[in-house]
């Protein structure tokens, strides 16, 4: 039987490296830029486009998960091939054309959080979409990676014709000065960021109460814990449903597999756990198509039970519409 | 605690469906075509582009896995959200620009196998690559989904300037009339297809012996079982290695998880199992980046052990090069 050793896998290459030969060039030069990160699929008659904003390798330490042994967290990260002590945090936005409205769910980092994220705009262009044609922006919650893409660094509006809809509980929480004053230092930045994004456009922002539709076929559902007004969405068209989990779980390799883990950024960790389990149980029971904002691109698929937790099963990439 | 029921997830949508309103249209029409299915990454200084050809939902029955209970096969397929009695068979080609050569590893279905596959050509165009600039085609084995893309249905050469390199053991097996005559009826088609593709270009086809380099940094390794001359590739540039597993496993949700399973299309099932385990063990031991021809697009990632088998962990989508 053939034995595959490191030597016979790469040995010949190493040997050849010593054999000098005249340099040649490929007939085509390297492309030297990433491919567009766009994935388009249908939910009933709705056309859904997943647009990647990139990934932030967020530094973490032993305090990152409040109620887990850091060795266990590191083991899961290693199994997911994340770099050590960095949480791979991908960002995928969802653009939904219902036929009646072109609706963007959350807006990405606006290139204001990490040098490795901020490609949403160029992917939107590559997808053939003009930002001026977006009718509605629906925000799930007010963390910076969800709202910063509303504006440029200089506070210009990126989607000048879009109505902006936000959860009313989220608006109330982040705009309350008592909450700002009581917040730990690390969270105060997020409060100030909410003011930067919304203060000069407040009169134009619409507040929605979860449980209602924000457009025909797009239902909003309160999913508190991650933040007080954190909201998820159910898209329905014909017999198809897509559950948009927002930040119900951060990276599923950690928080679907360990739904009890309470990461630092869940404001009410216990409530977030209960919400997470209830939504993932629902996804399992109905074999629902789901997508998560921090799931690996293209971020859609299904949820199955695995051991004491859950697992994200990516959707098979489609090339027909 | 909020309870997420089917009713409150999609209830409001259903209620609203009854409320007639004046039809409106989104500011932008639906795009109505799939996004390009291209993924570009680096292995050292090599630029690797994964190009999707689509997916074939191959009908199967209780004879599909020779040595497994069909109920077990169906359970894994259900957990992977495949349709019942159809094996989701995605196809991803790999284009490697080494700087010295532009090399295509296998060529896809050529649109000659299933209506849902055959998008390689348009993805190649979307990736900015002219088929005339491909210097070399390296074939892993002679199943139709790997060689049909060499030619159009009318036997025109799609890559007119490419040297075509094939494993010598594979050439010998499929071109031997004794093997054709001894083959079961279902396999005879594949023998005839090999003749269609190669007979009029035989004098221009180069035969390689695995263990050698086909280009600087691209090593070929015999991996028999799936077919007698089935070959895998190790790409090495600088300190980076990518193992190209070809058909070492078909869909990993079935055959990485159950490496002992012998699907009908492995010509020597027992040898294929031994090869599969040896290569996957190697991938685990070295935490090697791997790609598989029938892995879900973009088809690259790592392998970890899971239970009595293995699991494919997809690579996190990169947007920087």
Protein model, in words:
- Two copies of one chain form a homodimer.
- Chain A is an alpha/beta fold and 321 residues long.
- The first copy, chain A, has a single domain (41-314), classed as 4-Layer Sandwich (Metallo-beta-lactamase, Chain A).
- Helix content of chain A is 25%, strand content 26%.
- The first copy, chain A, is built from nine helices and 14 strands.
- In chain A, the strands form two sheets. In chain A, strands 1-2-3-4-5-6-7 form a seven-stranded mixed β-sheet. The first copy, chain A, has a seven-stranded mixed β-sheet with strand order 8-9-10-11-12-13-14.
- The longest helix of chain A is centred in the last third of the chain and has 17 residues, at 269-285.
- The termini of chain A are far apart.
- At the A-B interface, helix 1, strand 1, strand 2, strand 3 and strand 9 of A face helix 1, strand 1, strand 2, strand 3 and strand 9 of B.
